[in-house]
Amino acid sequence: MVDISHLPQNDKTNGWNLVLPQRTPKPALKGDVKADWVVAGAGYAGLAAARRLAVNRPGDRIVLLDAGVMGENASARNSGFAIDLPHAVGGGHDDLDGAQRYMALARAAIAHLEDNVTAHAIQCDWSRRGKYHTAVTARGEAEYIAPFVEALERLGEPYRRLDAAATAHELGTPYYHCAVYTPGCVLMNPAALTRGLADSLPEAVRLHENTPITGFETDNGIHLTTPAGSVRAPRMILATNAFAERFGFFKGKLLPFHAHASLTRPLDEAERKALGGVGDWGVTPANAFVSVTMRYTQDYRILIRHDFKYCPSQRVSLEEQARARVVHQRLFHGRFPMLPKVTMEHTWTGFVCMSANHAPGFGQVAPGVWAAVCQNAVGVTKGTISGLLAVDLACGIDNPLIADMHSLGTPSWLPPRPILDIGVKVRNGFDLWRSRHEA
Predict the structure, then answer these.
(1) Contact 45/59 with Cβ under 8 angstroms?
(2) What is the distance in angstroms between the CA of the first residue and the CA of the last residue of the chain?
(3) Hey, is 260 helix, strand or coil?
(4) Rounded (5°) CA angle 230-239-87
(5) Looking at domain 2-77+191-253+357-407, which CATH architecture does it have?
(6) 3-state DSSP call for residue 160?
(7) How far is CA 406 from the centre of its chain?
């Protein structure tokens, strides 16, 4: 039995969730149950896996466990982008072929999500608005935007390149030197999306929220213990992202990072007129570690996401979030000087799992256990498709996208801590200094 004591924490600060109507969580697991499948983790990967199991194995009993509640877990705390394109593509044939596989996986995930948003009338501000990939300086344009445009040309992907004036016209902020607009990205409220996906699961899936897994063993099938019960099943889909290490998988291969985010109060009519722009939009920066990811939402709020840092403890204090809010307010006013009275209403922290080689933790990892973890900060699409394909793999279904997923590789080994901690901090510090012009 593997004892699991380091668990996700819910500080109930997620702004995406706090702007929504209250929701009653599904009941926590009580007592000992048996199932045909158990899915650990109800983020994008776990939700997709549970739904696919109900399709692939009609009549099977499926139990889905999450340590927190829908709308507050890690999948609900991102910036709300379903991204279809890689940001970096080299010039070789293998790089272009890899980009094509990446896009096929991402677009299959978007299609799956959109089908469910439509079928179940999920109110999550699902918007096929595309996104703007921006640079702050001419140097940033040369280093990041120009190679991105070249890759789009080679891939035959549609785009619009915007100079400073055009970028300011469409976003309402004069802060950027240039941008590239691509139409395939979808924007949404991620808390509303995860809540809607959870509340529309097939009847065969029994979801238990507020049910952390505290023990795990694989003798004679899968046995999971929780604070008030247990689950026994012959097969499990592991969708716990960086917490997969607590189950004994991908040890020494996963890198937890955090990013703070803030959401303003809604802009009033005069402020919306002062901002201008062309409706709701999403901005990804040329360098996400240095600059700011932003959203302008359909309910007239502006999101600021910043401070991407290595966080092996997966813990952030409310005091650190308060300091982040001050920074976000300063960054906001630097980008939107025409909105001097707009303040941050909510500040929270989201966690992502990365690997050194940007490969996912995917595939069969033990008898009866298949993993769909480590989404490398693109959780909406990568998480969704990894959950779908992990189930197809486990069910023996011949899906050609499984080969595309395997082609992404597996997470590489990392040096032991504290050498790892020092190395990551030094590397990140150097990257911040080298790309400080894009802040």
Answers:
(1) no
(2) 47
(3) strand
(4) 170
(5) 3-Layer(bba) Sandwich (3.50)
(6) strand
(7) 20
